[in-house]
Amino acid sequence: MTKIVKLSLSLLQLIVVVILLSGKWGPLPRLGTFFSPSYGWIQQQLEQDISLPNELKNALLKPATVHFDSLGVSYIFAENEADLYLIQGYVTARDRLFQMEAASRLTAGRLSEWLGSRTEATDVYFRSLALTKAAKDATELVMQDDETRMALEAYSKGVNLWISNLSEDQYPLEYKVLDIKPELWNPEKTILILKNITYTLTGYFDELEMSNSLNVFGEDFFTEVLFHEFEELNPIISTSYIGKLKAEKGIDLSKYYRAKGSFSIFQEQPHPDNGSNNWAVRASKTKNGKALLSSDPHLTMNLPSIWYEQSLTTPEFSVHGVQIPGAPSICIGFNPYVSWGVTNSGADVADFYEITFRDSTLSEYLHDNEWKPITKVTEKISIRDKGIREETVLFTHHGPILRMNKMEGSSRLPVGSALRWIAHENGNELKTLIGATKAKSAHDFIHALPHFTAPALNWAFASTSDTVGMWVNGKIPQKWQHQGMFISDGTNKNYEWNGFIPFDELPHEINPKRNYISSANQLPTDSNYPFYFDYKMAGFSRPNRVNQLLEQKTDFTIADFQTMQLDSYSLLAEKLLPIYLSEIVEDSLHSFHKSLLEILRNWDFVNDGDSNAPTIFHQWRTAIHELTWDEISLSDSKLKIPWMDHTDWLIANNPTSKWFDDATTNEVETMKEMVNQGFMRMETQLKERFGLDVTQWNWSKANLTDLQHLGGIPGFNSGFVETNGSGESINAIKKNHGPSWRMIVEMDGWNTKAVVTYPGGQSGNPGSKHYTDRLESWRVNLGNPVRLFQKEDDFTLAYYSWRLN
Amino acid sequence: MIKIISIYLVIAIGFSWFFPWWSLILIAIITGFILRTNEFKKIGRWGFVLTGLIWLGMALTSSWLNGFELAERLTKTFTLPHVSLFFVIQFLIGGIIGGSGFLFGSKSREYFKKQSI
User: Fold this and answer.
1) Which pLDDT value is given to residue A560?
2) pTM for the complete prediction?
3) Which of A208, A403, A542, B66 is 20 to 30 Å apart from A268, CA to CA?
C-alpha cells in the first residue's frame, strides 16, 4: 500500500515539476527551456559562430567575400547586386532579427500576437493608421521597378535563409524571454520598416489639441504665442526664394474652420524632437582642401541601436554607411564620389478633416455637397492568450478616421476626424537610397532624390568634386499659411491638399556663397517662400550655433567636426539667463538661493555633464514654463501646451503678456512673477530630487542618459551613461534621445575617409561583446576610422572572413 | 552505484548541453530506476545535487567567459537583488529536474520489485 502511495507521490511531484517548468507563467519565460544549458540563456553567451555558412554560399549566384572587422561590421564584396543584398539580409538578420521583426509588427499592429493584451491599445491604434495597406500598395509600386524589386527580393531571401536555418537553441534572447518564434520575412515587411520611418518622423499629430485650443482660447493664443519665433533664427537655406510659384489663397485664422468635436489626443506618439544635425563645408574651408560632411541624426537611442553599419561593394559601386535593419541598401553614408546625411524636415504632412456622417449607419459622409460612401475595413487583431479582437476602420477619401466623438447638443451622430497623411502616399524611397549609393557625382545624387516621397528630409551632400548642397526633399503639399494646423472642414475642398511642391521648387541650395550648408530642423526658408511648412520648427539655438561655428574657421579637419559634434554650448542660455537674472528679486532670498544665483552667474553657458549650472538653469526654465501654462496642463489635457521656445520668446519679447497672468490670483502676473516663482519652484524640485548638496547636482545626473532595450526588457539597458549636451546644443542629448549615429566624411575619391560611431553595437544579443562595445567611443566621440575598398583583397583588417565560393 | 552515478553524470552533461530539458528527465528516471537503493533521501539528493551542479557549472563557466555580463542583466530582468540568486535559481531548476526524475525512477523500481516476489 505504502509503495503505491510513495510511487504516486513521486509521480505527482514529477508532474508538478514538469508543469512548473514547461508552463507559461505570466511574463516569465518557460523556465525549463530558458534555464536549460542547451536551449536557454546560456547559449547567448557563447562566442558567435563565425564559421562559413554553407547555406549562404549555396544560395549565391557568384562567389562573394564577407570580411568582419573587430566591431562586427560586415564588409560585403559581391559580384552582382542580387548576391549583395541577399548577403546584407542574411547578416542583418543574424545580428538584429528581433529588432526587424518588432519594427515590422509595431507598424502593422501585430505586437499583441506576441505580447498579449499589454500591446492591444497600440495595435488598435496602428491598425487605424492603416500602414499595412499603405505598405501593400507601396510594395506593388516598388516591385514594378526592376532595380528595387531585385533588391527587395534578394534581401528578403537572405533574411529567410537565416531564419530557416535557425534552430530553437539559437533564437535571439528576446524570443526566449518572451516565448515567441520568428516569422519568415517578405518584401512587404521591408516596406513596413520604411513606413515606420515616416511614422517616426511625421507621426506626431497635434491638430486635435490645436483645434481644442482654438475653440477654448481663440485666436490670441496663436497670434500672441504659437506663431512667434526668434528673429535671429537662421533658416536652412541661406538665400531667398526667387521662383514664381504661389500658394492658393488661403483661409485667415479668424475664418478657419472650428472643429465641432472635442477629441481626445493620441497616446501613441513618436518623440516630438526626432530631428538631427547635418552640415558640409567646401574645400576652401578645410585644411586638406577636401570637402567635409557631418551627419548626426537624433532619435531615441535604444538598444540595439536603430542603425546598423554596413559596407557594400560590387564591381559597379561601393558604399559605406548605416541602414535601418529590415531594409536593403544604405540610408546615410558615402561612396567615392558623394557623401550624404539627412535631418527631419518637420513639414506638416499630416492633416485631419472633420467628418459629418449622414446617419447612424456611418456609411456615408458629406463632401463637396455630396454624400459619399465610407469604406469599412474590419481589422482582426490576434491577441495572445485572449483571442481575436475585431476593429472596424472607416475610410474616407481623405484617409482613415482616427477619432470619433459624440457631439454635444441635440444631435446624436458622432463626429469623425479623418487623417490625410503622406505615409499613405505611394513612393519608391528605396530607389533614392540605391541611387545615392551608386551616384558618381552630385548631379547623380540629386537625380535620385525625387523618388523619395516620405518622410520629407533635409538632405545634405558633399562631393569629391567639391560640391556641397542641401535639398529639402520629399512630397510636400503646396500649403497656404497655417493650412492643416487645425482640424479642417472635411466637407470643404478648399482645405484639401492642392498638389505637391515640384522638386525643383523645393527649398535647396548648391555651393552657396558662404561655402557651407547646414540644417538642424529649423524652418527651411525665409518668409519669401510661397508655401507653408509648419507653425514652428526647431528653435534658434542649435541651428545658429552650427552656423556660428562654421563661420569661424576656414581650415576645418575631421577632428574639428568631431569636436563640433560634441559642442554643448547653449545660445539659448546665453540669451535667456541674463534676462532671468535681471528679473530675480533677491530681497527675500536665503543664502542657499543666492548660492544658486552665483553658480549661474559664473556659468559659461556650456551644458557640461560635470557642472551643476546647466541643471539649475534647465530646471528653472522648465519651472517657468510649467507655471506659465499650468492652467492648461491642469485642465482636461486636451489643450495644446506651447513649446518651451514659445515661453522663451514671450519672456524676451512680451514680458507683460496676458499669458503670464494667473487667473486664480487677484494680482496681474507678468514675466517677472513667473521668473521668481519659477526660481523657488526649481529650487524645491532640485532639492527633492538631488538633496541639499549642490555639488551633487551634476547635469549628467539630471539628464540621466540610460539607453533602454527596444522591447523595454529590464536588464537589457545600458546603465547610466555620463553625457554632456542638451536639446538646444549641437550635442543634442536629451535623456535617451540624441545622436544615434555620428559620421564625418572627408571626400577624396577612393581615398575618402570617414570617422563613425553610434551608441550601441552591431549585435542585438545582450550576451554579445558587440551589444554595447561602441557606446564609450560614441560617448567621447572618438569614432572608428573607416574607408572604402574597391575589392575584397584590399581589406586587411578582417577579424574573420567568409569566403563564399 | 558509483559507476551508475558517474555514467549518469556523463550522459546528463551531454543531454544538458545538446537536448531539451525534458529529455534529461527521462534519463534521470531511468537512472533512478537502475540504482539499487531505496532510501528516499539518498536518491533524491543525488539526482538533485548532481543535475543542479551540472546546470550551475555550465552556467558559471559560460558566464565567467562572458564576464558575467549577461547574468547580471538577466538578474535585473528577473528583478532579483543579486546575481548569485540568479545562479541559485539555475541550480534549483536543474536540481528539481534531476531530483524528481531520480525519485520517480527509484519508487517505480521499488514498486515493481515488490510485485515480482
Assistant:
1) 98
2) 0.95
3) A542
